[in-house]
Amino acid sequence: MSSTKTSSHAEHRSSRTSKDAHREKENHREHREEKPSTSHHSAISNGSSTDRAFKDKHHPLLIAIWNTDRTQTNVEEKLKGLRDLIRKGTNPSINCEILHEQTGTPIAQVSPLIIACFEGDVDIIRFFIENGADPNQTESEHHLTPIHVLCDAEYHGQSLRQKDRADLIRLLIKHGAQVNHLDRSSMAAIHKAVIHDRPECVEVLMDAHADPNVAFMGDTPLSIAARHNRRKIVQILIDHKETNVNHRNDQGGTALHFASAGE
Q1: For residue 258, which of 169, 174, 213, 251 sits 20 to 30 Å off, Cα-Cα?
Q2: How many folded domains does the chain comprise?
Q3: Which terms does the record give in the GO molecular function aspect (predicted)?
Q4: Is the pTM of the predicted complex or chain greater than 0.90?
Q5: Which domain holds residue 61?
Q6: Buried residues in 34-66 as b, exposed as e (16+ CB within 10 A)
């Protein structure tokens, strides 16, 4: 990755200010697709010896994940380092501390699997899932699971195809991931998948019995999909008999109202 990227790919990207969190809550109402903000948990900006020295204060698993490019050679080097650590008995589900760049004090705890999901390296994510990482482990700040991260908007430096996201979620579910966990803002993964227009992810979640009627700020996934004119997602949801098509939000609106309004 180029050093001109907006933020380091070694940062704890789940971090957002309270203003940013509120903005995400309003996202589906205002029909805006906002990407997650840069983290105030910045750990490393690319390249300098000072940055590398700071990175090296973190857990070895995180050091093995973080790097400055995503070439195939780089991924193979990462995997080799990770295999060596797991072979030596390192717990793949260990909660790793993220340090403040200026003070060096711990500011969050996050699993290597979640960091890998933020980074967006498919092979690294698969490695942790297939080597026993807890698929339901949450990070300490927003209580996000790996599935939440994969359903969310793209994080800085992350590049995952829709199919990759859906396949990884399917793999997480195969390894015991729960699909109805609510984060600190009371968002389920399906809410994020709908807001960020990820029909493949919605389909995988619904096939795994995600609750189609769980409300976020009064709106169900179907209501949100209709409000955003997510036609593919609307069809996926109404094809499942569990979906309540007559749900009314706090203002009395239904999915049909939103669809008719052309929002």
Answers
A1: 169
A2: 1
A3: transcription cis-regulatory region binding
A4: no
A5: 18-185
A6: eebbbbebbbbbbeeeebeebbeebbbbbbbbb
